[in-house]
Amino acid sequence: MVEYRILGYDMQHVRAYLQQGETIFGEGGHVVAKSPSVSIAFKAQGGLLKSLEREITGSRFFITELAGPGMVEFSSFLPGRVIQIPLEGNGIKVESNSFLFAESGVQYSASLASLGAGILGGEGIFLATFRGRGNVFVHALGGVSSYVLKQGEEIEVEAEHLLAFDENMQVSVTRLGNLRTMILGAIEQEGLFFVKVTGPGRVWVHNVSIGQLVGKIVRNLPASQGPGLNIGGFQI
Amino acid sequence: MDKCPMCGARLQQGLNYCEACGADITIYQNVYNDVLNNYSQPTQTPGYQPSYQAYQQTQYQTCPHCGAQIPQGVQFCPNCGKEVKKRHFW
């Protein structure tokens, strides 16, 4: 049994202690530190086709596989919380950028859960699916909000903020409103699409979305480096 | 429960929600059981009532990965969690 320690308060990171013969696999770019005895291999888990599916849906072709014995530490690129989701034969869908690592009993595949959601929701709504037995660790940007929905209960989550939800839940995309609302919404940097998730099940939500963060940063860039057309110091 | 099942934060005594993530922890177990039940029952058409006989006639197959006896037609092996037959989204 792998031992985990979720450390930190506002910027959480997770340390896993592997025994001899235990392996975990993770998304590339999240390993911070490891014992010298831990070996890293890059594998196209699930075969060529599964890997291609992952690549198409915004995730990675190769998966980092770490084999014990020793310690591995994972972190994300923004402050936020690490969430441990144990799977007991059930499945969850996770926005693929947020995946940290999972135990070897878990199968990682990609899905176009809802074609409308994938195309309209923009970044990150291509979902990674995890099924099997074992723990999955995901990272919530900024912090996590979560909802436990009863049978038939519904919630609308702004598309970029959606982090994870149970595989059996129904998902559909709703627009913000009519055209005028949507244009004003875009100006006000409100999300344009909401994902409606229907219970029963659990929903995890990011408190920060990369899209909104980038939007705010871009506004504060020096004019010459910002997006758009620069005419004599004035930016359009 | 001393830790939030959704986010892992420590729960405050006497509150029915998690102070870190806002999850309603009183209904958590019921909802989680509902989710797990979706996997234990084979998918059926609505209105179809499984009889005891139908239950008896459950066919078994062998998992190609771990060799366990598993019900016919399941997508994932309940024992090792691996996909019995690979399925792609196209």
- Helical fraction of chain B equals 10-25%
The CATH homologous superfamily of chain A corresponds to Mitochondrial biogenesis AIM24
Given helix and strand content, the structural type of chain A is mainly beta
Q: Strand order of the main beta sheet of chain B, please?
A: 1-2
Average pLDDT figure of chain A: 81
SSE string of chain A: EEEEEHEEEEEHEEEEEHEEHEE
Distance between the termini of chain B: 43 Å
Strand proportion of chain A, as a percent range, falls in over 45%
Give the CA-CA distance, first to last residue of chain A: 57 Å
Oligomer: heterodimer
CATH class descriptor of chain A: Alpha Beta
Largest interface: A-B, 43 and 29 residues
Number of beta strands of chain B: 2
CATH topology of chain A: Double-stranded beta-helix
Summed up, the domain count of chain B is 2
- Helix proportion of residues of chain A, in percent? 10-25%
Structural class of chain B: alpha+beta
Largest sheet of chain A: 10 strands, antiparallel
- Output the number of helix runs of chain B: 2
Rounded average pLDDT of chain B: 78
Feature tags:
heterodimer, A: 236 residues, mainly beta, four-stranded antiparallel β-sheet, 4 helices, B: 90 residues, alpha+beta, 2 domains, two-stranded antiparallel ribbon
Describe the structure.
- The complex is a heterodimer of chains A (236) and B (90).
- Chain A is mainly β.
- Chain A has helices at residues 47-56, 115-120, 179-187, 210-219, and strands at 3-7, 13-18, 23-26, 31-34, 39-43, 63-67, 70-74, 80-95, 99-103, 106-111, 127-141, 144-149, 154-158, 162-166, 170-175, 193-198, 201-206, 230-231, 234-235.
- In chain A, the strands form 4 sheets. In chain A, strands 3, 5, 6, 8, 9, 10, 11, 12, 14 and 17 form a 10-stranded antiparallel sheet that branches. Chain A has a 4-stranded antiparallel sheet with strand order 1-2-7-4, with no helix packed on it.
- Chain A starts with a strand and ends with a strand.
- In chain B, a hairpin with a 6-residue loop joins strand 1 (60-62) and strand 2.
- The radius of gyration of chain B is 19 Å and the shape is elongated.
- Chain B folds into 2 domains: 1-41, no CATH class; 56-90, no CATH class.
- Chain B starts with 27 loop residues before the first helix and ends in a 19-residue tail after the last strand.
- Chain B has helices at 28-40, 52-56, and strands spanning 60-62, 69-71.
- The relative contact order of chain B is 0.10.
- At the A-B interface, helix 1, strand 8, strand 10, strand 11 and strand 12 of A face helix 1 of B.
